[in-house]
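> example.struct
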């Protein structure tokens, strides 16, 4: 295969097992598989996560949840982001839990329940300080009252109350985390006094799952750690948390050739050879998720050594300068992986490019086939 993202599902199962053990006092694990399983493939990673011990799955959008149901994934699923006008009926009919931020959304869920004859499962979100989705604290009592009334009227069941941290990679000691946890506890009191009895209360992302047991409540909600990457690289890499990176991005040298000293390489000649040398062409570019600003910065593994990308990353390809080393068309190129064979990691790419490891794996393009290691089925 020319290019592939090799996914080790045994690593996903292993990582979820680690998270299940980390979850305090029997809290369950909702494995977050949004964005095509962080680029690892929605359905295969969801199945592996369930095999590893996840009892819930979390996604952003309805169609992600519906794709899981269409693939016969039957565990509870929360989908947390909709916009007005979206048809909630298929999700309600499929028993998908809906994240609800406002009384307007609650009313829409109730109408979908009426239309389908199936009770809408809703999980109310309170904004504890991220200032992104969720009901503002000032609007929270009204939302809880309205939800209690909807439950009494029939058609709606409040299955969960939840919120989300602002600091994933800020470290467990960031004061915002404890402030948000305190606001969440107050919001739970408000919900209880409105008469709500949610099955699950949840707050913790990967970082909090690994480092802040007091935030675990009934369910933890890790995404990144499921795929074996560290959410807190300043505190430790995957190995320090017992995690194994699940994705290896591999390609193949398309051709090699000798060029003289002074050859300008790729668009804009942002790399010029110093002496006669061998160039190797790799058939992967920014359309496949290799950032264009990896030009002359990021490294890959080819023929036993790290090579820095030589010149501008173009849409479908980039070039390596391998000097007088020998490599040939057909040789394997490893862009990133667990690092165990000398290849860079997704964290290395994030550090080189001034971003986070989340972005490196999720941006691998749709044109790159995901393949699943045989031994890991
Ligand atoms: C993406 C996301 C998560 C998972 O976060 P990680 O940092 O990847 O663990 C959890 N909850 C919500 C609401 C999210 O959007």
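> example.seq
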């Amino acid at each position: 295969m020319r290019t592939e993202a090799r996914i080790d599902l045994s690593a996903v199962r292993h990582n979820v097992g680690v998270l299940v053990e980390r979850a305090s006092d029997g809290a369950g694990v909702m494995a977050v598989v949004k964005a095509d399983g962080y680029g690892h493939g929605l359905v295969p990673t969801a199945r592996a996560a369930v095999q590893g011990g996840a009892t819930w799955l979390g996604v952003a959008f309805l169609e992600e949840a519906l794709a899981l149901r269409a693939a016969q994934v039957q565990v509870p699923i929360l989908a947390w982001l909709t916009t007005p006008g979206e048809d909630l009926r298929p999700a309600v009919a499929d028993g998908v839990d809906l994240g609800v931020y406002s009384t307007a959304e609650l009313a829409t869920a109730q109408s979908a329940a009426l239309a389908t004859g199936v009770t809408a499962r809703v999980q109310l979100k309170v904004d504890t300080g991220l200032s992104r989705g969720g009901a503002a604290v000032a609007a929270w009592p009204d939302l809880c009252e309205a939800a209690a009334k909807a439950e009494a009227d029939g058609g709606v069941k409040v299955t969960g109350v939840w919120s989300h941290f602002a600091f994933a990679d800020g470290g467990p000691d960031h004061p915002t985390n404890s402030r948000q946890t305190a606001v969440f506890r107050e919001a739970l009191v408000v919900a209880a006094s409105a008469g709500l009895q949610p099955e699950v209360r949840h707050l913790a992302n990967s970082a909090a799952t690994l480092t802040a047991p007091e935030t675990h409540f009934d369910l933890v909600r890790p995404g990144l750690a499921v795929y074996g990457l560290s959410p807190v690289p300043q505190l430790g890499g995957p190995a320090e948390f017992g995690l194994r990176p699940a994705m290896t991005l591999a390609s193949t040298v398309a051709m090699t050739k000798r060029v003289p000293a002074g050859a300008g390489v790729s668009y804009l000649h942002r790399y010029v050879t110093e002496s006669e040398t061998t160039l190797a062409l790799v058939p992967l570019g920014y359309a496949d998720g290799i950032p264009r600003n990896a030009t002359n910065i990021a490294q890959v593994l080819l023929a036993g050594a790290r090579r820095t990308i030589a010149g501008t990353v173009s849409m479908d390809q980039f070039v390596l300068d391998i000097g007088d080393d020998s490599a040939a068309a057909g040789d394997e190129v490893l862009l990133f992986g667990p690092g165990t064979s000398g290849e860079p990691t997704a964290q290395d790419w994030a550090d080189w490019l001034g971003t986070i490891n989340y972005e490196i794996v999720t941006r691998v393009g749709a044109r790159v086939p995901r393949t699943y290691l045989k031994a890991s089925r």
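> remarks
The chain has a mean pLDDT of 96.
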